[in-house]
Design goal:
The structure is a homodimer. By secondary structure, chain A is mostly helical. The first copy, chain A, is built from 15 helices and two strands.
Chain lengths: 317, 317
């Protein structure tokens, strides 16, 4: 079977399990949890966990619960982040706090975290797996905290930005990859190399997200990009643009507060004219090459992982 | 050393460890986490974990991380619940979402959950301990969800109320007791009996909380009772009062929305005149007797646990 077909099959299996994961509880919780987990996410993280296990000679069955745990953990962060960022759309659907209310969304996230931990604890878990999962949870909280801190900072360096996305996005993608390797029982060094591969893929993924937020149609992203601009989020492209011409970009941001379309058009035009979009594309390619480099020489079958990073490279939403 | 002195000593040790538990991270997280964990909580749950371990022949040292984990888990629920309930005061201090904002409070709770899990994973943890901890997390979410559902229900039965507080409060107190027993390595039956003792203590504790919310001075409780009345929370005393004379109590609740003092005085007077406060006191005593009964015949030294339930019985805040 081709890897593309395999992905489609694995995705269906993941979706089927997620759809029925929490049915027995108060309706004000089971409904929003079901709503979130029936969303049309790309399921990239659990796919990576399974691919990582298979690359290391493990099986999908052994690692399936851990893969689901990562996906539920990821969705927990989305539900809570959407409250904080006041996003109204996620994966093309209303966000939980917007459809219900903030309280329901907080509880929905908390319950999902418990579900994620329970899935991980059901797997052929070692102490190490739980340990990195818990550390991953803290990393993602810290990344989001720093991201929020950036909103009110006038200037953020690219180094600071990278540290933030490594915590907020990279750490969890690294975790997804590492869980697969650990479950397959490969040596410590291989586990860490695969984790580092995942972290770099996560870093590239986030810069790409920043890129797509400015250059894709909002509906294709399935989330509203409006909030990021309005909130003054420091993305890869915005940091470059602010560094080049702070007063012009700040002026465009002010315009966007009043006339959103006009302000965002000014920012897009500036980014294109200055070639910042090309810088971003180049950066993504360099990071993904670095990621693939981490796999070189490992005693594993790298085919699916290389396919995965290539998939990330070419994603359009 | 007397048990009272021991409690004071243990509480100091708990507070010292909690004060320094999370120092290395983004300030927008370490500050509010430090603020919460430096609060003046009674530390009843970790004390129970330690007493339970000691009752079973275990030591404080072996169970200390797990005890702290329970306290941090408890405080996580308070931070998130206070957002949902719009409470402004907790333990005599401003709540996190009120002092900072909702986003900070959501993240603070999430980070605390990671800290709690990390503490538990550091202890001489068995798979079983993590398992019941994770289930406890879901139970407390479900309890809070049902509590919120009750706010918009006209009538709630005492049975429904009991199920709710067993999830929201009892489960975690049971967990605190059970973790101590498990860490001491006693048999399954004893662990479960001690857990059931804790659950009943938790149930009594919650009814007492309901009582104190109406009959204590707000500042003594260290939390604002205003919100519970305004939100239409279904407490033990309110359910009794509503069952006896729904129209009168609903009228007083409406009054409280406009003139809080007048409304609450009407409710207090009604509850006293009808002897509902006495019913609550009696209920607490009966449940605590049931709790102590769970310990009878166990191959443990029950002294500290019996002291603990007596402490709960006589608490004034």
């Amino acid at each position: 079977m081709s890897i593309a077909k395999l992905i489609s099959q694995y995705r269906d299996e993941i979706n089927n399990r997620l759809a029925n994961i929490y049915l027995d509880g108060p309706k004000s919780l089971t409904k929003p949890v079901g709503y979130v987990l029936n969303g049309s996410g790309k399921r990239l993280r659990p796919l990576l966990t399974i691919f990582s296990a298979e690359a290391c000679g493990g099986s999908k069955e052994e690692v399936f619960s851990a893969a689901l745990a990562v996906e539920v953990l990821h969705n927990f962060t989305l539900v809570h982040d959407d409250i904080m960022d006041q996003d109204h759309i996620r994966h093309g659907k209303e966000t939980v706090h917007h459809k219900w209310d903030d309280g329901i969304a907080i509880l929905t996230g908390d319950a999902m975290l418990s579900i994620a931990l329970n899935l991980l604890n059901q797997s052929n878990v070692q102490h190490a797996q739980m340990n990195i999962f818990i550390k991953g949870l803290l990393a993602v909280c810290e990344g989001q905290a720093i991201d929020k801190e950036f909103e009110t900072k006038n200037s953020v360096t690219l180094d600071e930005y990278q540290q933030m996305i490594d915590l907020k996005t990279g750490h969890m993608v690294g975790l997804a990859a590492e869980l697969g390797a650990i479950s397959a029982g490969v040596d410590f060094k291989t586990c860490h190399a695969i984790r580092d591969y995942g972290r770099l893929v996560g870093r590239a993924f986030q810069i790409q997200d920043d890129y797509l937020e400015i250059f894709s149609v909002s509906s294709m992203m399935g989330k509203s990009l409006r909030s990021d601009i309005i909130l003054g989020k420091k993305t890869f492209l915005m940091i470059h643009a602010l560094e080049k011409n702070g007063s012009r970009i700040n002026h465009a941001l002010k315009t966007a507060q009043i006339d959103y379309k006009k302000g965002i058009r000014e920012i897009r035009d500036y980014i294109e004219n200055e070639g910042i979009n090309e810088i971003a594309r180049e950066e993504i390619n360099v990071i993904l090459k670095l990621a693939d480099g981490k796999l070189r020489g490992l005693p594993i079958d790298t085919e699916k992982l290389l396919y995965f990073s290539d998939l990330i490279k070419h994603r359009g939403h």
